[in-house]
Amino acid sequence: MIFFHYMMAPDLQDKFSLLIFVFLLMPMLYILFLIILIGAELAYFRIADLYNIIDKPNHRSSHQEITIRGGGVIFPLSVILWFPFFGFQYPLVVLGLVLITSISFVDDLKDISRSIRLLFHLIAVSLAFYSLNIFALHWYIVIASYIMVVGIINAYNFMDGINGITGIYSLVLFATLWWINQYQVQFVNPGLIVTLIISVLIFNFFNFRKRAKCFAGDVGSVSLAFVVVFLLFKLILQTDQLLYILLLAVYGIDAVFTIAIRLGLGENIFQAHRLHLYQLLANEQKLDHRVVSFGYGVVQLLVNVLVIYSIIGGSLSLGLKGLLLLAVAYVGIRMVIIRRVKAINAA
């Protein structure tokens, strides 16, 4: 919308005046977004209390108190809020987000069959793929992309298990994407990333606590993963740098290794469990959730710096060596924790 008015300005002076206006307006617009999203989150808390939308702790949980579920609804709301103010960009992606958010919110209220969830996910992802023009690529790339996206969405959902982990990890990711968009290559409207950062900061205020006010819920983690996938794929397609997928390296390694372990144990990988490394650290090692979440964020930030440095320097091997080092460290830490747990149980 702003871009349209800029292009239609009759002369250079009008264009310059409009740019000054935009410069002054944008911070105020983000402040408005902040106020609206805080109000929306507080309103949701009232609704959740009224309709008993809560998480009750059980033997598979990493928390001990009854907590509001679905506080992550603020993530898709932020995108929907951003949409009309920035020229209705990426309409198919926003439509896909609405679909995947809707089915995820219903899933937070009551159990939905895996096949129905998958159907909605595939429709939403297909809309995003059409927007990204992925269907113009080779068929095997399209299939691999579907598998990767479904994997990322499920990993993001599985990793949302302790206070702060989704918020801190996503904050690191969006901050990195903002830096890349600002200083390396502009691949997306910057307002989208800034608005997402605002929503994550608000969520962290209520979630990054010893006793969280709310959890993201499927509506938060799944919708956030969908937006992350869109941003990463857009960046990768525009730069032809697949190495950017390592901006999800920490989540990816934990998710892949845990799935492999559970398959080896003959467990149903779609059922709740407590075998992720972050769960072992929080539950078996009794580390503060916030310490574990902050640690995940710091490690991913270091990986992100390495990825950016590798791409700028044209050294793919450096990024891959970093991934290998991270995987080795992950396995080592996991083995140490499991040995300690076995020793305690044997005592």
TrEMBL record:
GO cellular component, one term: plasma membrane
Record bears the keyword Membrane: yes
Annotated residues for binding of Mg(2+): 157, 218
Stretches that traverse the bilayer: 20-45, 66-84, 90-109, 116-132, 138-156, 163-181, 187-208, 215-236, 242-265, 291-312, 318-337
Cofactor(s), by name: Mg(2+)
Main location: membrane
Top-rank taxon, per record: Bacteria
Compartments it resides in: Cell membrane
Keyword set includes Transmembrane: yes
One term of GO molecular function: metal ion binding
Any one biological process term the GO annotation gives: cell wall macromolecule biosynthetic process
InterPro entries from the UniProt entry: Glycosyl_transferase_4 (IPR000715)
Protein keywords: Cell membrane, Magnesium, Membrane, Metal-binding, Transferase, Transmembrane, Transmembrane helix
Membrane topology: Multi-pass membrane protein
Family matches, as CDD domains: GT_WbpL_WbcO_like
Protein name: Glycosyl transferase, family 4, conserved region-containing protein
Native source organism of the sequence: Mucilaginibacter paludis DSM 18603
